[in-house]
Amino acid sequence: MIEASLIKAAAYLGAAISVGAAAIGAALGEGYAAGEANAAISYRPRYSAQVLTTMLVGQAVAETPGIFGLVVAIVLIFAAPSQVPLTKAFAYVGAGFSMGFSGIGPGLGSGFPVGSACQGIVRQPEMSGDLMKVMLIGQAISQSTAIYGLAVALALILLA
Amino acid sequence: MEELGKIWVWSIKLAGYQLTFNVTTILMTLIVMGILIIFAHYASRNAGMVPHTCQLIGEFFVGNFWKLTVDALDEEMAKTYFPLICALFMFLWCCNVLGILPGLEEPTKDLNTPLGLGIMGFFLAHYAGIKTKGFKGYIKEYFQPIFFMAPLNVVGELAKVISISFRLYGNIMGGSIIIIVVSYLVYDLILPPFLYGFFGLFVGTVQAFVFTMLTLVYISVQVK
Description:
The structure holds 2 protein chains of 2 kinds. Chain A is mainly alpha-helical. Chain A has 7 helices and no strands. The mean pLDDT of chain A is 88. Chain B is mostly helical. Chain B has one domain (2-223). Helix content of chain B is 74%, strand content 5%. Chain B contains 6 helices and 2 strands; from the N terminus they run ββαααααα. Chain B has helices at 23-44, 53-72, 75-97, 112-142, 150-185, 191-223, and strands spanning 9-14, 17-22. In chain B, strands 1-2 form a two-stranded antiparallel ribbon. In chain B, β1 and β2 form a beta hairpin. The mean pLDDT of chain B is 85. At the A-B interface, α2, α3, α6 and α7 of A face α2, α5 and α6 of B.
């Protein structure tokens, strides 16, 4: 009985670490993108609609690590089995660490391309299609570390 | 709060294998398909120089996505892939927005739908790559910049499928969970309509657009 509640407690701790740490990077990256977009609009107000679209799309992509953290937290809270050996408790906390800390860097890092793309659009508006393409590719690749974190976290929860 | 983990599942045994069908997802996908087919019927019927409402909405979608597709691919390629891109966005948008109607659920809330669409995009992009560059040129891409980067390039390609589908799934699933939890906390007073507006309409539209754009970008990376 005590074992089961210990394992539940570990799952809750892991969920808190997962979403708490992963939110840091995503929030910083999105805030940076919004700041750059504002600077870009003040520089050339005529292109504010294009800058807004780019900013929203980029922020939606930069939010992904935070969403991964949320998914892992939800799995830990609602779907993690508690009738398992005590070693699983460490796996749950480890899953939280894995997803949480691997979410910081990609969240922050995929905010930078958004800011630069916003600045680039007001400087050369005819390049906006290419800029958005490169921005999306760069973000998708910079988020691969978050995907490794997610894979390890899910493996720890479901397989370990 | 108990309804979170429960799904309506229909399982049959066939030749020693257990087949599991998620009935809610299938039903909701069929509803979305029905909506789109009816919309397409009304949009193309009596098409004329002075557009009626349905035709106007259809032309709005087609015009905007034609521009985006031509920007990403060139004119010749765009003719091949544009119908898919436009249809993908309309399907995903209907899926993501379906949740704001009472009693209905987003088919994209189930990981299988985004994963299926992501795998479709993956195969399509690689098919386009092989077709334009030839098999030799396509394989050569994996050994850039140096030959021992090949395993990393393969992992990177596979990670694209995971990231594109988990992004859509996580956003829609997270939104619906937040709506359930907050509605439970405030006893369904005042807040839920605004939450449906934000997560259903705004996040749903942005995520459908992001998924479509990423599929388009993956195709354009392969063909260039």
